[in-house]
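New to this. Please check this record:
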Amino acid sequence: MQLDNNWGNFSRLCGIPAVEDGNYVRCYYMKPLSLDERCQLATSTTSIRKLKQGILSPFQNLKKADLVKELKARNIETTDKDRKQLQEDLTQLLHGISRPPALMIPEPHLPTENINIPSYEILCTEPLHDLTNVIQNIIAELPYHIQDKEAQKEFQNFSQTTIVA
């Protein structure tokens, strides 16, 4: 089963690949990573340097040489693999993690206890995308609920210039 591109290859927080969403036994036994484990996985190699430089998605658009360096640092074999295979290996290894949790980005090396978020919950959804869609729907629908034709025209113009399909 292939999911929408917004979800990528990992549609669940637990780290199960999207192609195995129907494997309920694996889903049941897969323990979601803690915040500390997620952060350690995302910052255990050269990515920490990129984060300190302000690059918030250190694994995005890596060149083949960077992929090899990242995988070798994690003791993963890279010989005779093309860029696509290397990217797949890294994605599988990271379980879909693309960066440390947002609250840990300023100090990714500190444990959650030190920054007072040891029991912080990571949502299994993408609330920003959900909110964006709700707001876009409101902006698109609003002109049809306004009686004043002049105001309705202004809101339609606003709606058409604000929402980019």
